[in-house]
Amino acid sequence: MSQTKEILIHDRWQSLRQLTDARIALGHAGSSLPTSALLNFQLCHAQARDAVLQPLDYQSLQQQLEALHSPVFILHSQAQDRRQYLQRPDLGRRLDSHSQQQLRDYLAGADQGADLAIVISEGLSSAAISHHAQPFLDLLLPQIQQLQLTLAPLTIVQQGRVAVGDDVCFTLKSKMVVMLIGERPGLSSPDSMGIYFTYNAYPGITDEKRNCLSNVRLAGMSYQQACHRLSYLIQGALKLGETGVQLKDESEASDPKGSNFLLPTQSAQ
Fold first, then answer.
1. φ, ψ of residue 154 in degrees (nearest 5)
2. Could you read off the pLDDT of 110-167 as tens digits, one per residue?
3. In this model, does residue 16 exceed pLDDT 50?
4. Distance (Å, rounded) from C-alpha 85 to C-alpha 264?
5. Residue 268 has what pLDDT?
6. Which domain holds residue 92?
């Protein structure tokens, strides 16, 4: 009885898969993908959909953040629900009238706002915020204190886009705003958090006025790296009076570890 030939044909470049999460060198079985590769793709696709559609537990996040800084407001964009948020990006960029009034009431009687406002929203990945917002802020807030900056109330905006942070910053009369938001999930990164930093933000400001740190997650840019880079940008913005294309991120040169999240970490010998 003749031996059955192996159905799975391995790709000659399979060793390169150690260097990337991209779907390369998967091999084939006849003219099709191997079953394991197909099942993995379906799993990652389901995780990406869940990241977009799974609601964020706002009350639980509020309780976590109140242990770091108080008060913490839960606000809402003009998008009434998730469906409208996905279909009308413009509505996610502005606070609704009730949320704006909440902030005005808090600020009533104050001559000026704080140096920095921090805004959190699920964006396109609730998993990103539920996994990373609290541990990242646990590292960032002590650095804000070391820089002797005043901090506005933390705000969680339901159904928010990046630009909703401008609305919060402007209403609170803050000098700068940091926006933590869930990024559009990829098939290998359903929980990636983005950080957007803007000086003198106001409704309608354009994106070239922002600095962005992307891919903050356990398999991407670490919390420590993101905190170091954001602190560098904050100090640069205070000196320059601007963010965005005018403010270059040269934080790696000032990082004593000289680390780069794009390169594999070498273990100690």
1. -70, 140
2. 767 899 999 999 999 999 999 999 999 999 999 999 999 999 999 999 999 999 999 9
3. yes
4. 37
5. 36
6. 52-254
Domain count, the chain: 1
Q: Which CATH number fits the domain that encloses residue 88? A: 3.40.50.11240
Q: Are 140 and 127 in contact (CB under 8 A)?
A: no
Give just the sign of the alpha carbon dihedral 169, 173, 176, 178. Answer: negative
Give me the helices (H) in the chain, please.
35-53, 58-66, 82-87, 97-107, 126-146, 164-171, 223-240, 251-254
Q: How confident is the model at residue 28 (pLDDT cuts 50, 70, 90)?
A: confident
Q: What is the C-alpha separation between 179 and 122, in angstroms, rounded?
A: 11
Residue 88 burial (C-beta neighbours within 10 Å; 0-12, 13-18, 19+): middle
Q: Is residue 249 part of a domain?
A: yes
Establish if 28 belongs to a structural domain: no
Instruction: Name residue 118's beta-bridge partners.
Output: 178
Residue 94 lies in a domain: yes
C-alpha pair distances (Å), 6 with each of 2, 9, 10, 42: 12, 7, 10, 24
Determine what percent of the chain is predicted with pLDDT higher than 90: 66
Neighbours of 244 (CB within 10 A): 17
Q: Which residues contact 234 (CB under 8 A, 6 or more apart)?
A: 116, 144, 147, 149, 176, 197
260 inside domain: no
Average pLDDT, the chain: 88
Q: pLDDT-derived band of residue 203, with 50, 70 and 90 as boundaries?
A: very high
